[in-house]
């Protein structure tokens, strides 16, 4: 069972922030072999959705209200620790993120920039592709929208 906690940047404890940055680096920099600037000064505006299994951070997203990242509310930095993916925590953290956007921002329209290989995952959550494929930090991505 995934325990999900949502906090603003200012509510994060130092150890929570460190765990978030470590896991994002583990997935997006090391696992995906992608050198990019993860620490982008957008975390301060985001809501941070953290999924814990036995007090260990294993899943994460960050959420933005409309206009802070895209025109619509958005979800980014979606990740699940490699050894935990078979447990479908991606769906749990995304469902929590979608519900949080609805409750906190009173929004149901959500825009994301998704890695292309995850298109079916996001389709299963109600997102549809908008526009053409593009490269972001050398990785194929697609724009997706949930109405």
CATH C-level class is: Alpha Beta
| Assembly state | single chain
Distance between the termini: 28 Å
Q: Output mean pLDDT.
A: 96
Looking at the structure, what is the overall shape?
globular
Largest sheet: 7 strands, mixed
What CATH architecture would you give?
A: 3-Layer(aba) Sandwich
Number of strands: 7
Q: Supply Rg.
A: 14 Å
**Count of discrete alpha- or pi-helical segments spanning 4 or more residues:** 3
Helical amount: 25-40%
Determine the strand fraction and express it as a percent band.
35-45%
CATH fold name: Aminopeptidase
Low-confidence stretches: none
Count structural domains.
1
Q: In terms of structural class, how would the helical and strand content be classed?
A: alpha+beta
Encode the helix/strand succession as letters.
EHEEEHEHEE
Which strands sit side by side, in order, in the main sheet? 1-2-3-4-5-7-6
Please name the fourth-level CATH homologous superfamily: Gcn5-related N-acetyltransferase (GNAT)
């Amino acid at each position: 069972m995934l325990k999900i906690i949502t906090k603003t940047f200012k509510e994060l404890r130092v150890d929570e922030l460190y765990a978030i940055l470590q896991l994002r680096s583990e997935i997006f920099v090391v696992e995906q072999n992608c050198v990019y600037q993860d620490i982008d000064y957008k975390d301060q505006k985001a809501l941070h959705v953290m999924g814990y299994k036995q007090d260990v951070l294993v899943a994460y997203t960050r959420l933005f209200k409309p206009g802070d990242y895209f025109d619509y509310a958005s979800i980014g930095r979606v990740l699940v620790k490699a050894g935990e993916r078979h447990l479908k925590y991606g769906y749990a953290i995304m469902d929590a993120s979608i519900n949080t956007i609805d409750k906190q921002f009173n929004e149901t329209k959500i825009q994301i920039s998704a890695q292309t290989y995850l298109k079916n995952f996001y389709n299963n959550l109600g997102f549809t592709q908008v526009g053409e494929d593009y490269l972001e930090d050398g990785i194929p991505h697609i724009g997706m929208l949930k109405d």
